[in-house]
Amino acid sequence: MDTTERTVRKNYLYKGKIVNLRCDDAELPNGAPCKREIVEHPGGAAVLCVEDGKVVLVRQYRYAYGEELLEIPAGKLDPDEDPAVAARRELEEETGLVADLVPLTVLYPTPGYSNEKIYIYQAKNVRKGVRHPDQDEFLDVIPMPIEEAIARIKSGAIRDAKTIAALLLYEQN
Amino acid sequence: MDTTERTVRKNYLYKGKIVNLRCDDAELPNGAPCKREIVEHPGGAAVLCVEDGKVVLVRQYRYAYGEELLEIPAGKLDPDEDPAVAARRELEEETGLVADLVPLTVLYPTPGYSNEKIYIYQAKNVRKGVRHPDQDEFLDVIPMPIEEAIARIKSGAIRDAKTIAALLLYEQN
């Protein structure tokens, strides 16, 4: 069965700094017309960095939720940027660490309405670089024992999808 | 350190069927003004249903990615809907299964720009109900051996965040 939904027309409603918004005219596999609200996002890169049994997390206020979250270091790709380059940049900016990066997985966080992909890397051969967070980033670096991070995932205290996926994948290996 | 970003004014740019979009005037903890692009989403509910060593997945075309994805059954909450009610509805609509639902975790898929929360439940005492997918849903139900699903997560073939989080959490227990 062909399940492809065909784009009839892309209609941009907003072009912003982080996201664009479209409401496309599309066609279902049976030819019926439909609308598709799509959030365009350039994609993200994130790094799972484990050293001496501790995972490097950052604690950061997230305006969308009105909460501080614990997450692995991550950031948005620049247009057409190699995700590994973005991952390396975000790791050093946020934590002051430099590392070799090995692809861990690609995460699709919200398939219902966004095209964002999060490229997750695992840090190897970690060494000290220079921390220089963006001027509008207020974040704390928290090295947390892996067992504690896993316990916080199981208890629901760590809720960020990329952090959960990265840590539990790491635990599988 | 207080890291709270204060809302100065919520500015709605779009109110849609699936998402709303705002670009708020806000203030950083140091008082500096900033803009925050926020995708409002009512939240989602998803169900991890494992029976006889098989996890119930649905294969569905996702317009945002232009790909078919394998995911656990899930759907959007109606306004102010109890997530457990939505989870039960989506499970039966998409798979024809009825079950008792136990909360597994709450997932924050994209903290950078969306307020979506995905409430994930685990199905217990599973029995047959009546399958009735939405008219614009074309999906296949795929019962997949757990080991195969885990292998597909590790190989990167299963990429949906809620599905990865739910299955790997299940494996932890």
Task: Provide a descriptive summary of the structure in words.
With 173 residues, chain A is α+β, with helices and mostly antiparallel strands. The first copy, chain A, is built from three helices and twelve strands; from the N terminus they run βββββββββαβββαα. Chain A folds into two domains: 6-40, no CATH class; 44-172, Alpha-Beta Complex (Nucleoside Triphosphate Pyrophosphohydrolase). In chain A, strands 1, 2, 3 and 4 form a four-stranded antiparallel beta sheet that branches. Chain A is elongated, with a radius of gyration of 18 Å. The model of chain A has no long low-confidence stretch (mean pLDDT 95).
Strands, helices and their partners?
The structure is a homodimer of 173-residue chains.
Chain A: E1 6-9, E2 12-15, E3 20-27, E4 33-40, E5 44-48, E6 50-51, E7 54-62, E8 67-71, E9 74-76, H1 83-95, E10 97-107, E11 118-128, E12 139-145, H2 146-155, H3 161-172
Parallel strand pairs in A: 5-11
Antiparallel strand pairs in A: 1-3, 2-3, 3-4, 5-9, 6-7, 7-8, 7-12, 10-11
Strand and helix order of chain A: EEEEEEEEEHEEEHH
CATH topology of the largest domain in chain A: Nucleoside Triphosphate Pyrophosphohydrolase
Number of helices of chain A: 3
Structural class estimated from helices and strands of chain A: alpha+beta
The number of distinct β-strands of chain A equals 12
CATH superfamily of the largest domain in chain A: Nucleoside Triphosphate Pyrophosphohydrolase
